[in-house]
Amino acid sequence: MQSQGLGKILLNYAKDKRNKLYLNVYQKNARAISFYKREEFEIQHSGLDEATGEKDYVMTWQHK
C-alpha cells in the first residue's frame, strides 16, 4: 500500500491531535527518512535499537 497517500493521511490525523510528535526510524530506511523530512520532521539524534541492533534516528515534528 506504499505510495498511495495512506501514510500522509494517518500522519496528518496524528498532527491534528498533538502539538509534538516523536518517532524512531532505522537509518538505513532512506525512503522513510525522506518521507518524514518532507512532512517537516527533523532528526534530533541517532541511536541504536537494542531489540534489533539496528542504528536509528529519533525524529520530531512540532506544530508551528
UniProtKB/TrEMBL annotation:
Pfam families: Acetyltransf_1. Residues 1-64 form the N-acetyltransferase domain. Signal peptide: none annotated. Coiled coil: none annotated. Keywords: Transferase. SUPFAM superfamilies: Acyl-CoA N-acyltransferases (Nat). InterPro entries: Acyl_CoA_acyltransferase, GNAT_dom. GO terms for molecular function: acyltransferase activity, transferring groups other than amino-acyl groups. PROSITE patterns: GNAT (PS51186). This is GNAT family N-acetyltransferase. It comes from Faecalibacillus intestinalis.
